Amino acid sequence: MKDIKLFIYYTIILLLLISVYLTRNYLKYKNFSEYPVQKLKKENIKTGDIFLVAYHKPGNLLGDLIMKVRFNHVSLAVWEKDELYLIEYANYFDKYQGLLKIKYQDWIRFNKNTTILKNSISGSRDKELETKILNYYENNRNKMDQFKGGWNMSWYRFLYKKNKYLPLDLSYQTTCTEIMSSLLGNIGVINNTKALSDYHQSDFIDMKGFSLSQGIKYKKDYLCSLSN
Predict the structure, then answer these.
(1) For residues 29 and 68, is the Cβ–Cβ distance under 8 A?
(2) How many domains does the structure of the chain reveal?
(3) Residue 217: phi, psi to the nearest 5?
(4) pLDDT average, residue stretch 14-37
(5) pLDDT tens-digit profile of 169-191?
(6) pLDDT tens track for 74-97
(7) pLDDT at 210 over 70
(8) Which of 91, 131, 146, 228 is least enclosed, having the fewest CB within 10 Å?
(9) 3-state DSSP call for residue 122?
(10) Are residues 131 and 162 located together in one domain of the fold?
(11) Which residue has the higher pLDDT, 103 or 70?
C-alpha cells in the first residue's frame, strides 16, 4: 500500500510539473499581443519578403508547446511579371503538395484561419532575386513534388546541433524550415553556416537566427489582418 501511495504521489507531482511547463510555454509562445496588427496589402509585398504562419489546430498544440513553437510554417514571396506568388513546402488538402508556387489570392484563402507575421526584406535587388527564386523552384519542384513533412522518427536530427553546414538531404522527411533555409542559402540571402536541421522556426522571426548576406536585412513588420 505504501508503494502505491508513493507512486500516486510522484505521478501527481510529475503531472503538475508537466502542466506548469506546458502552461508557461502556451503563455509565452502562443501569445501574439506583442505584435502590431495591420491590414495586409498586396502592393506592399516585395520579392524576398517572408511570411510566418501559426496554425491553430488542436492536433498541433501539444507538439508546439513541447518544442516551443510560435510559428509553424514559412513562405517566401516572389513577383513574376505582374503576378504575386508564395513559394513554400506544404500540403493543402493533399491536392497541392510539395514545393509549391501558389498565387497570392489562393494562398490567402488557404491560410485565412491562421496567424501570419510579415518579415520585410531590404537591401536586395528585386529583379535578380526574383530570377534566383524562380530558378530554384523550377530546378527543384519535381524532386520535391510530394510533401513528406509532419512528425516522424527522423526528427531525432533536431535534438542535437551539428555546428557545421550540411546540405539538404531529401532522403529524410524534410520540413518546410529546412527547405526554406536551403532555398535562402541557394539564392544568396543567407550564408550557409549551419546544418539545415539546426534552424528553429523562431530563427525566421526577423531572421535573427541566420547569418544574412552582406547588405540584406529583415525586420518583423506586423501581424497581417486579412479582412476585406
Answers:
(1) yes
(2) 2
(3) -135, 150
(4) 87
(5) 776 778 889 999 999 999 999 99
(6) 999 999 999 999 999 999 988 889
(7) yes
(8) 228
(9) strand
(10) yes
(11) 103
> DSSP state, 189?
S
> What is the spatial distance between Cα 49 and Cα 119, in angstroms, rounded to a whole number?
6
Tell me which residue range forms the domain holding 197: 34-225
Provide CB contacts within 8 A for 137, sequence distance 6+.
87, 99, 101
Phi, psi values for residue 157, rounded to 5°:
-65, -20
pTM for the complete prediction?
0.86
Sequence-distant (6+) residues with CB within 8 A of 17 are none
Cα separation, 162 vs 165, whole angstroms: 8
Sign of the CA dihedral 149, 183, 127, 223?
positive
Residues 195 and 215 occupy one common structural domain: yes
State the burial class of residue 210 (Cβ atoms within 10 Å of its Cβ: 0-12, 13-18, 19+): buried
Residues 16 and 76 in one domain: no
| Residue 228 scores a pLDDT above 60 | no
Q: What would the grid cell of residue 5 be?
A: 501511495
Residues 6+ apart with CB under 8 A from 161: 195, 198
- Report the C-alpha gap between 158 and 88 in whole angstroms: 20
How high is the pLDDT of residue 132?
97
Cell, residue 96: 497541392
Q: What's the pLDDT band for 149 if we cut at 50, 70, 90? A: low
Place of cell 537566427: 209
d(Cα 152, Cα 171) in Å, to the nearest integer?
13
pLDDT mean across residues, the chain:
88
Let me know whether 2 and 94 are in one domain: no
Predicted confidence at residue 156, as pLDDT, reads 65
